[in-house]
Amino acid sequence: MVREEVIAPEPAEALANLLDVEIPGDVLPPMWHWVYLLERRRTADLGPDGHPTSGVPAPPGPGLKRMFAGGRVTTARPLRIGRRATRRSWVTRTSEKVGRSGPLTFLTLRGEISQDGHVAIVEESDLVYRAADASSPTAGAPASEPPVGPRLRLAVDEAFLFRFSALTYNAHRIHYDLGWARAEGYAGLVVHGPLQALMMAEFARRHGDGLVGRTFAFRLVAPMVGTQTLTVLPGPDGAQVLDAGGQITARSEFVPGNVAGDSPGQA
């Protein structure tokens, strides 16, 4: 799949205002590419849960629940606002496993974003599909004694979750439809995994060495459920996200080298 568009200032302005931070000038902050080059599907292409029923990635079967499990992003150079960029996406691998909730299908989607003739961003997203009647993931482990040092806090209410869904063109109903979220086994609305990854990236941008020239790896370890204030703290190898109850829901680290994967011609 190939998409091309101008990195316009308006989505960056919208994300900055959502996060209540300064609007960027000529350079897009790392990881903010998630509000650009999106696949904007027709309503007729969506299933009852809001996810597309075909395309890239194509669901491995009908009626399966999709979860965002984590990923890796290498930022070779920041994207420039006002210039065209191209994203190429393809599936690099799939695998079948059996977990505590039953059969699982793991799928890795690779994307490469180029601008001005150079690859700027290479990323892999790990998705998990599970049966519709499978139980929802359990809560995360409690954090050890919180480390002393900088931290980020972000209050996420219903309006915030709705606006982030709109910015990322994510129609998955567990993030804004309380009845649907409960039908999928959650006690409340589910805070987006990409939002938690973005906040860990923001933590590195504001309080660390940044992301340019590095590979940022992140993993969602438990769902964050309910409107609340999330907290980003230093972790053993990077950062970690805690929910309002002090449970770890996401972790990140910087890893050497670029993300693995085949070229489009080998997929």
Description:
This protein has 267 residues and is α+β, with helices and mostly antiparallel strands. It has a single domain, classed as Hotdog Thioesterase (Thiol Ester Dehydrase, Chain A, Roll). It is built from 4 helices and 10 strands; from the N terminus they run E-H-E-E-E-E-E-H-H-H-E-E-E-E. It has helices at residues 9-19, 158-167, 178-183, 193-207; strands at residues 2-6, 65-75, 84-99, 102-115, 118-130, 152-156, 214-220, 228-234, 238-242, 248-255. Helix 1 (9-19) runs antiparallel to helix 2.
Helix-strand blueprint:
Elements: E1 2-6, H1 9-19, E2 65-75, E3 84-99, E4 102-115, E5 118-130, E6 152-156, H2 158-167, H3 178-183, H4 193-207, E7 214-220, E8 228-234, E9 238-242, E10 248-255
Antiparallel strand pairs: 1-3, 2-5, 2-7, 3-4, 4-5, 6-8, 7-10, 8-9, 9-10
Helix pairs in contact: 1-2
Number of helical regions: 4
Shape descriptor: globular
- Sheet with most strands: strand arrangement: 1-3-4-5-2-7-10-9-8-6
Fraction of helical residues: 10-25%
Proportion of residues in extended strands: 25-35%
> How widely separated are the two ends?
12 Å
* CATH second-level architecture: Roll
| Fold-level CATH name | Thiol Ester Dehydrase, Chain A
Brief descriptors of the model:
alpha+beta; (3R)-hydroxyacyl-[acyl-carrier-protein] dehydratase activity; disordered C terminus; single chain; 34% strand; Thiol Ester Dehydrase, Chain A; Mesaconyl-C(4)-CoA hydratase; 267 residues
Concise structural overview:
The protein is α+β, with helices and mostly antiparallel strands. It is built from four helices and ten strands. It has a ten-stranded antiparallel beta sheet.
